[in-house]
Every structure is written in structure tokens, then in C-alpha cells.
Design a protein that fits this description.
With 221 residues, the chain is an alpha/beta fold. The protein is 48% helix and 21% strand. Helix 5 crosses helix 7.
Length: 221
């Protein structure tokens, strides 16, 4: 029996979202990009008005702040520094403790997040997590382009990507005991699919669903 502990990242392991802070980190390294940060209000307004989806919002804000073709080695340098800051000061202490406890209990720890893979992987690595399922970015000729390479790892797509990861690892669902931790109701499909569902610092919609489904509620600090 494979024992898997799967964690969402933003506001589950970390205390706050990470995409906008990453864009700020990129702009700090390139001050001429700061003006582009202000321009991201336009795609955000389109998203809030339901004119675009979350995947398109990511692509548009990436293009505005990071440009059409960001050198991959530059992205990696900024991502490593950004990951160090996140892990040093923006991770719940209780998340660290739970990850350690799951490992001690024989669980393989996996991160499954809608955040982009190019900065998730260094965060995960600094937390000692090697198995990562994240929104895949597109690299062409050594440059990061603002296009998701597949699905945004969010909602139903996250569950599909977890199932694809299981298949790639040669793990049959019937041979796995799965724990899943998340803060957001968008992860309801994966929470329902897991053997053990944990609502971490849930917002109101997830808290209501957790109470309805008798999922465990965790308050991490």
C-alpha cells in the first residue's frame, strides 16, 4: 500500500498567495518592469468580470511583467531567491510540523498546486519535497514564454493531474492511501477523492463544505 500525503501550496503550506509576490520579486530584479505591475490591474479586472479564466489571467500577468521571452537561467535565479524568502518567513510552522509527521508515519509527501512550476519546484525543494504537481510553464529555446503547457492545475484539472501523476508513478488508486490538505473550496474534487480530507484554515465556502462532508478542519499557525 502506497501512503501519500498531498498538499496544496498557496495558503495551505504558505501563509499567503505567491504569484503576485513572485512578479514583484521579478520586477525588483528588473526595475524597468515595475510599471508593468500596475498594468496587471487590467487583466485582474477582466478576471473579476468573468471575461477571462484563471489560466488566462496567469498568462496575461506573466507576459506583462516578465515579458514575452524571459531567459530561463534568469528565471531560475530569481525563483531560487524567492523560494528562500518564502520558506524562511512565509510558511506555517504547523505545516512544517505536519509534513514532518506525515513523513515519519511513512507517507510520501507530494505538492499539488495551481502555482507555476518554475518557482514552485525550488520552494518544494527547500521544504524537502521532491514530488511536485504544478501548472506547467512553456520553455522555448531556453526562454520562458507566457503560455501554460497544458492545464492550469486548479479545480477538476488538479485531480486529473494528480491521477496522471499516479499513473506515471505506476501507482493504482486502489493501492494508495491518500491524505489531501487544502485551504480552498476549488479543491473539493480532490478532497472528495482522497481517503482523508483536511480543510486547512478554510475560507467560508470550504468550511461549510467540510462540515457537511465531515472533513477534518485544521487551524494552522
Amino acid at each position: 500500500m502506497h501512503r501519500l500525503a498531498i498538499y496544496d501550496m498557496d495558503k495551505t503550506i504558505t501563509r499567503s498567495p505567491t504569484w503576485t509576490p513572485f512578479l514583484r520579486a521579478w520586477a525588483r530584479a528588473r526595475p524597468w518592469r515595475f510599471a508593468a505591475l500596475a498594468a496587471t490591474v487590467a487583466p485582474v479586472a477582466l478576471y473579476l468580470g468573468k471575461r477571462i479564466d484563471r489560466a488566462r489571467l496567469k498568462e496575461m500577468t506573466q507576459r506583462l511583467v516578465m515579458g514575452r521571452r524571459a531567459a530561463r537561467n534568469s528565471v531560475e535565479r530569481v525563483a531560487e531567491r524567492f523560494a528562500a524568502r518564502i520558506v524562511a518567513g512565509k510558511v506555517w510552522d504547523d505545516a512544517r510540523a505536519q509534513i514532518a509527521a506525515d513523513r515519519a508515519a511513512g507517507y510520501r509527501v507530494v505538492m499539488a498546486t495551481a502555482s507555476y512550476d518554475f518557482y514552485v519546484r525550488p520552494i518544494a525543494a527547500q521544504l524537502g519535497i521532491t514530488d511536485v504537481i504544478a501548472t506547467p510553464s512553456t520553455v522555448e529555446k531556453g526562454r520562458l514564454v507566457p503560455r501554460i503547457a497544458g492545464e492550469n492545475c486548479y479545480g477538476d484539472a488538479k485531480l486529473r493531474m494528480i491521477e496522471a501523476w499516479l499513473a506515471g508513478e505506476g501507482i493504482a488508486r486502489g493501492d494508495a492511501q491518500v491524505r489531501f490538505y487544502s485551504d480552498h473550496v476549488s479543491d473539493a474534487p480532490t478532497l472528495a477523492w482522497a481517503d482523508e480530507a483536511f480543510a486547512v484554515n478554510p475560507h467560508a465556502p470550504l468550511l461549510a463544505l467540510a462540515e457537511e462532508k465531515s472533513w477534518a478542519v485544521l487551524r494552522w499557525r
